[in-house]
Amino acid sequence: MNLHDFDALSFDCYGTLIDWEAGIAAVLRRWADRNGLALGDEELLAGHSDHEARAEHEYPSEPYPVILARSLRALGEQLGVPVTDAEAEEFGASVPDWPAFEDSAEALARLARRYRLIILSNVDRTSFAGSNARLGVRFTSIITAQDVGSYKPDPRNFEALAAEVDRLGIRPGRLLHVAQSLFHDHVPAKAAGLPTVWINRRHATGGWGATPEPSAPVTPDWTFPTMAAFADAVEDAAAEADHPAE
Q1: pLDDT above 90 (res 244)
Q2: Euclidean distance between CA atoms 108 and 94, whole angstroms
Q3: Structure pTM?
Q4: What are the C-alpha distances in Å from 41 to residues 16, 82, 171, 240?
Q5: In angstroms, rounded to a whole number, what is the distance separating the alpha carbons of residues 158 and 212?
Q6: Any idea which residues carry the catalytic annotation?
């Protein structure tokens, strides 16, 4: 496979394009400080990731703001700290405030010259609309957990992606999935037969952060530390295809 062999890219948004760890940590940090919790951001993110994944599995039809609220309440119960309704609602409504990675908008604009761009995200439509405004690109299709009625890594989300790709007339084998989370995206994408690109945003940090450890071993087809590096590689591959070395 070569990066220029594809007609469309499907993206996870949060963790890949939007810095959800910064957004989540900002809210959890305020909550922890108000309650005198001596926990670092990595500990808060890890605690959140477990409770969020459980809530998404147990309440697949609930919108993402409710999932976030459930996660915070469960984290508070685990730590023996009360969570008020206002705090839970603040966390649930925080998604549009989460920042984009600095390279996301520029990289997406470069990639949009060569591919159709599709979002496959574990949020609701309203939350994603706030994030989309930060990304500055028009996606060909947007598929959210709210649309599907389940959350990744449920295979139904990738079945919905396959149906949308078929509707768009994209030929089999011409879609490449791009994501940060091995747990939410790479394991189920590979099970669905998709080639994948890992944007390893935590390459300098290590650990799993806001995502659980993957449920099975998985090997992405390409790995890049940033979206900018991925866009660079795409342009290099296209240039090589257009002007092969003699």
Answers
A1: no
A2: 23
A3: 0.96
A4: 19, 19, 43, 43
A5: 19
A6: 12
Q: How far apart are CA 98 and CA 104, in angstroms?
A: 13
CB 161 within 8 A of CB 143: yes
CA end-to-end distance (rounded Å), the chain: 21
Cα 211 to Cα 167: distance, rounded to the nearest angstrom: 31
pLDDT of residue 242: 75
Q: Which amino acid is at 170?
A: I
Q: b/e string for 174-193 if b means 16 or more Cβ within 10 A?
A: ebbbbbbbbbbbbbbbbeee
Query: Could you tell me if 154 and 187 are in contact, meaning their C-beta atoms sit under 8 angstroms apart?
Result: no
pLDDT digits (tens, 9 = 90+) for 184-239: 999 999 999 999 999 999 999 989 999 999 999 999 999 999 999 999 999 999 88
| Phi and psi at residue 240, to the nearest 5° | -65, -40
Q: Which domains does the chain have, with CATH numbers?
A: 3-19+99-242 (3.40.50.1000), 20-97 (1.10.150.750)
Q: What is the pLDDT of residues 102-124, one digit of tens each?
A: 999 999 999 999 999 999 999 99
User: Can you give the pLDDT at residue 245?
Assistant: 60
Rounded Cα distance between 55 and 20, Å, is 17
- Read out DSSP for 138-159? --SEEEEHHHHTS-TTSHHHHH
For Cα atoms 216, 222, 226, give the angle at the middle one, nearest 5 degrees: 105
Residue 157 burial (C-beta neighbours within 10 Å; 0-12, 13-18, 19+): buried
